[in-house]
Write a structure and sequence with these properties.
The complex is a heterotrimer of chains A (313), B (129) and C (549). Chain A is an alpha/beta fold and 313 residues long. Chain A has 12 helices and 8 strands. Chain A has 3 domains: 39 residues, no CATH class; 209 residues, Rossmann fold (3-Layer(aba) Sandwich); 47 residues, no CATH class. Chain A is 53% helix and 14% strand. A 7-stranded parallel beta sheet of chain A has the order 4-2-5-1-6-7-8, with helices on both faces. Chain C has a 9-stranded parallel beta sheet with strand order 5-4-3-2-1-9-8-7-6. Classes of the chains: A alpha/beta (313), B alpha/beta (129), C alpha/beta (549).
């Protein structure tokens, strides 16, 4: 199958799926596919959803997708689940909450496993988003667990990022504070019928107070009970408000440009790292060099210098 | 980098998911990426999920006796969607007499009660495309 | 023998056995201790732990004479294909010494779909009988006087609808609702946690249940309004302690809901019943039954302040473990079922269904159902197990095991209380996770050879595929579709519309509006089950499981 042709001209869902597999598995044709579809990207609005395990992110994603469908938009979803560090296997459980989206042609859900390499994953998730974008999805949601640095990289592919929290997380809330301050354009308190909702709301308000960056856009705090579809419309309204703010202020172009820069730098780093792995780290000579370094026969500074000069040649 | 992806699904109305869940976990522990889709699904939902995740294997479990209707239907829909290389396997309370018919309909193998999960792993490894 | 002397003797015995273990090794992976003595039940207070049969805490049984007067109800779960076919099987069972009926419904019926619904494709008449309307129910009980039998119905999400149909059939026979005896399963919490045949979200489901409690307390007083079921939790892979702990936690939630709805605990608690699994480990099962009665009695007395003895008693129906039947060497299942039956009887069950040898392969044939029924009769009449009350009471091992299971159950119940009760623990996936972990461990134990299942991972033999299995062919769907079409042509459709409209309005009203009378009106007008549940689906919405692994 000609993936690009089928995806762009024949609106083939199978081609979209095969294209994502190609980038996910780093098939030989991946670069070619991405090169050809790139000119057709940049039209979708990308939403990132993150938060701690158990916050209800995939249920939230499901409901937001349905709300956008009601508003006449088509929706692509990239749902990311962690891979087991023990077996290399994974159970991708997000889709279970999205199965009734399967009968809607205006929706496409792709599950991705982290496969132990969150760093590389942000690029792959980014490529999956571009493929959905080129296919023509108007809204694309990237959903990922946690708010660690690697997850932050993933949601950086988004125009609007929402952090989902729930009451009763205890000390976990401290751990995610930093993450929230850094990335949340929107904060949603899910399972808001639980005890501790008001307290959490106050804590969130205080954290936002402390952040000087929130001058022109102050992240709204919404309350939802996603499992009952309560509060979802307001969340989507907030997303749309944030989008409007980004567009009117010119920030959207700004962050997209910054994103492209990050992306290109990451791609260059990735290529260089791979080149160094292949041509330096994995050679017999390098093994000998390390042995000599450890006996203090030579010192590292000149070794580095030599490698860099050789690589740059 | 290409991990084997397996969709584990229960078509029909049967809610007995003990077997499906045990198999899902065993497959994960064998290093597969398992997409667990839960109970009470239509063949269409299963086939569409298989397409969107571009899985290598669809593992169906059913204990209610509706396998002769529902398993072939899933196979048919996968083909209709252009997923010709997907390995479809089935399990559950399935009488031996039904197995040849299911195989003729495109179900690669049927695992009946008492099958060690290791056999399923072996079969997938040997037959996945 | 004073404990001091015993202890010294016991220590000496243990030391001498340990010294010879190299020469006479014991099997690996044995869970119980080598030997149980009075040391294991030190400080055992007979009065508080056991008491007398028929008295608090009912450890020894809920009736004073147990099976010396009347045996347990031999209630064979049956139903397949059409109402006509199942009616024949019911009459056969009653003619052969079965003492109560137990209706198995097909999955579309259990999930509130008519046989013609797209979701019902392939499932009609498969795991039970297809019931689409009162017309089918009339056929199902044709020739069976409903004041002469007790009938158990395995129906949960649409329990209200099937109960209404049963009441309506009785009306046509001239039998008043106050004469009806039987049970509806009506246990929605375990559907979310383990069995999967839910329809509505938890809140309206709990409302339906309390509506039924209230309606039956007034109108169907002999009816068991719920069968709080551990059976399916065990089938899903739980341990014995988890089975009773999660089920009693569900029971607590139902009692709380009814009390919250304004009912007096003694008004309905006597009609609550339980449903246990009889698994392979005979003595563990006996201990489980005994422990469960003690836990429930305490819950009802201390937590809910129930006054009547009937309210404190855990009355239980039992089914032998379907998941323990093997597809390999199916005749061996007859022996397994006999041992499970012995466990249930020594555990003091009030009624029992015995599985048939071929159920790991298909629905049972008449021949294999007969063997299963005869198994109960042999245990009842020949084994002597039913001749004295609680025959294992006082066994050091069984008493120690009863205490252990009780302690483990309390620990779980406390944990679930901390989470916020069973509905919350289910919503969070806690109970499902615990069950799945046990199921996975069980499977891995078998695969590693730590647990032996005869014919599965030891003593296997080549065998011919079994013949003579019961087949339900696809024509049942067509038959039911024809029946529905004919029904819709002959019933008063205006009457159907108006009763459905009244039900819809009532569903939207507060919980204090009891839905049972409205459902009964729909049923009497021959609205189909799918139409009635469709109205409730429209108002209540549908539950989606979102708990992964």
């Amino acid at each position: 199958m000609n993936i690009v042709e089928e995806l762009l001209n024949n609106h083939s869902r199978l081609a979209l799926s095969k294209g994502i597999t190609a980038v996910e598995n780093e098939y030989d044709n991946a670069v070619e596919i991405m090169t050809k579809i790139y000119p057709h990207t940049g039209n979708a609005y990308v939403i990132g959803i993150t938060g701690p395990p158990g916050a209800g992110k995939s249920t939230m994603t499901d409901k937001i997708a349905k709300e956008y469908r009601k508003r006449g938009k088509t929706v692509g979803i990239v749902a990311i689940d962690p891979t087991s560090p023990y077996s290399g296997g994974a159970i991708l459980g997000d889709r279970i909450r999205m199965m009734d989206l399967m009968s809607d042609e205006g929706i496409f859900v792709r599950s991705m496993a982290t496969r132990g390499s969150l760093g590389g994953l942000s690029q792959k998730a980014g490529d999956a988003v571009k493929l959905m974008d080129a296919y023509g999805f108007e809204v694309i949601i990237v959903e990922t667990v946690g708010v660690g640095q690697s997850e932050v990289d993933i949601v950086k592919t988004a125009d609007t990022t929402m952090v989902v929290v729930i009451p009763g997380m205890g000390d976990d809330i401290q751990a995610i504070k930093a993450g929230i301050l850094e990335i949340g354009d929107l904060i949603t308190i899910n399972k808001a019928d639980r005890e501790g909702t008001d307290k959490l709301n106050i804590e969130m308000e205080m954290m936002l107070e402390l952040n000087p960056e929130h001058v022109s856009w102050r992240p709204p705090i919404n309350r939802t009970i996603a499992s009952k579809n309560e509060g979802i419309e307001a969340v989507v309204d907030s997303i749309e408000e944030h989008k409007a703010y980004l567009m009117e202020s010119g920030k959207l172009a700004e962050i997209r440009q910054a994103r492209i820069k990050t992306e290109v730098v990451a791609m260059v780093n990735d290529r260089v790292n791979r080149y160094i792995d292949k041509n330096v780290v994995e050679t017999d000579d390098f093994g000998k060099t390390v042995a000599r370094l450890s006996t203090r026969e030579i010192e590292p500074y000149s070794v580095v210098e030599e490698i860099v000069i050789n690589v740059l040649k | 980098m290409a991990n084997v992806k397996v969709l584990v699904a229960k078509p029909g109305l049967d809610g007995h998911d003990r077997g499906a869940k045990v198999v899902a976990r065993a497959l994960r522990d064998a290093g597969f990426e398992v997409i667990y889709t839960g109970i009470r699904l239509t063949p269409e939902q299963i086939a569409e999920a298989a397409l969107q995740d571009d899985v290598n294997v669809v593992a169906l479990s059913l204990l209610s006796g509706a396998h002769n209707t529902l398993f072939p239907k899933v196979v048919e829909l996968l083909k209709e969607k252009g997923l010709n290389d997907v390995l479809v396997i089935g399990g559950g309370v399935i009488p031996d007499a039904d197995i040849p018919g299911l195989k003729a309909a495109g179900v690669a193998e049927v695992f009946t009660p008492g099958t060690p999960t290791g056999n399923i792993v072996e079969f997938i490894n040997a037959n996945v495309k | 023998m004073a404990n001091e002397t015993l202890k010294a003797g016991f220590d000496k015995y243990m030391a001498s056995v340990d010294a010879k273990l190299d020469k006479n090794p014991e099997r690996a992976n044995l869970e119980p201790k080598r030997l149980y003595t009075p040391l294991d039940v030190e400080g055992f207070d007979y009065e508080t732990k056991l008491g007398l049969p028929g008295e608090y805490p009912f450890t020894r049984g809920v009736q004073p004479t147990m099976y010396r007067g009347r045996f347990w109800t031999m209630r064979m779960y049956a139903g397949f294909s059409t109402a006509e076919e199942s009616n024949k099987r019911y009459r056969y069972l009653l003619a052969n010494g079965g003492s109560g009926l137990s209706c198995a419904f097909d999955l579309p019926t259990q999930i509130g779909y008519d046989s013609t619904d797209a979701m019902a494709e392939g499932e009609v008449g498969k795991v039970g009988v297809a019931i689409d309307s009162l017309a089918d129910m009339e056929i199902l009980f044709d020739g069976i006087q409903l004041d002469q039998v007790s009938t158990s119905m395995t129906i949960n999400a649409p329990a209200s609808v099937l109960l209404a149909m049963y009441i309506a059939v009785a009306e046509k026979q001239g039998v008043g609702a106050d004469k009806l005896r039987g049970t509806i399963q009506n246990d929605i919490l375990k559907e979310y946690a383990a069995r999967g045949t839910y329809i509505f979200p938890p809140a309206p489901s709990m409302r339906l249940i309390t509506n039924i409690f209230e309606y039956c307390a007034k109108n169907v007083p002999l009816w068991n309004t719920i069968s709080i079921s551990g059976y399916h939790i065990r089938e899903a892979g739980s341990t014995a302690s988890q089975e009773i702990a999660f089920t009693i936690a569900d029971g607590i939630a139902y009692v709380e809901a009814a009390v919250k709805a304004g009912m007096d605990v003694d008004e309905f608690a006597g009609r609550l019943s339980f449903f246990w699994n009889a698994h392979n480990n005979v003595l563990e099962e006996v201990a489980k039954f005994r422990a469960s009665r003690r836990v429930w009695a305490k819950v009802m007395k201390e937590r809910f302040n129930a006054q009547k003895a009937k309210s404190q008693m855990l009355r239980v129906h039992t089914q032998t473990a379907g998941s323990m039947l093997t597809a390999q060497q199916p005749n061996n299942n007859i022996v397994r079922v006999a041992l499970q039956t012995a466990a249930a009887v020594m555990g003091g069950t009030q009624s029992l269904h015995t599985n048939s040898k071929d159920e790991a392969l298909a629905l049972p044939t008449t021949e294999s159902v007969t063997i299963a029924l005869r198994t109960q009769q042999i245990v009842a009449y020949e084994s002597g197990l039913a001749d004295t009350v609680d025959p294992l009471g006082g066994s050091y091992y069984v008493e120690a095991l009863t205490d252990k299971i009780e302690a483990e159950a309390w620990e779980y119940i406390q944990k679930i209380d901390e989470i916020g009760g069973a509905p919350e623990a289910i919503a969070k996936g806690y109970i499902q996770k615990e069950i799945q972990d046990s199921a996975y461990k069980w499977q891995m134990d078998i695969e590693k050879g730590n647990r032996i299942i005869v014919g599965v991972n030891k003593f296997q033999q080549d065998e011919e595929p079994p013949t003579n299995l019961l087949r339900v062919d696809g024509s049942v769907g067509k038959l039911q579709a024809d029946k529905i079409a004919a029904l819709k042509a002959r019933r008063d459709n205006a009457q159907v519309e108006s009763t459905l409209a009244a039900l819809e309005k009532a569903c939207g009203e507060p919980e204090s509006t009891n839905l049972m009378p409205f459902i009964l009106d729909c049923v009497r007008a021959y609205a189909t089950e799918g139409e009635i549940c469709g109205v409730m689906r429209k108002v209540f919405g549908e539950y989606k499981s979102n708990v992964a692994l």
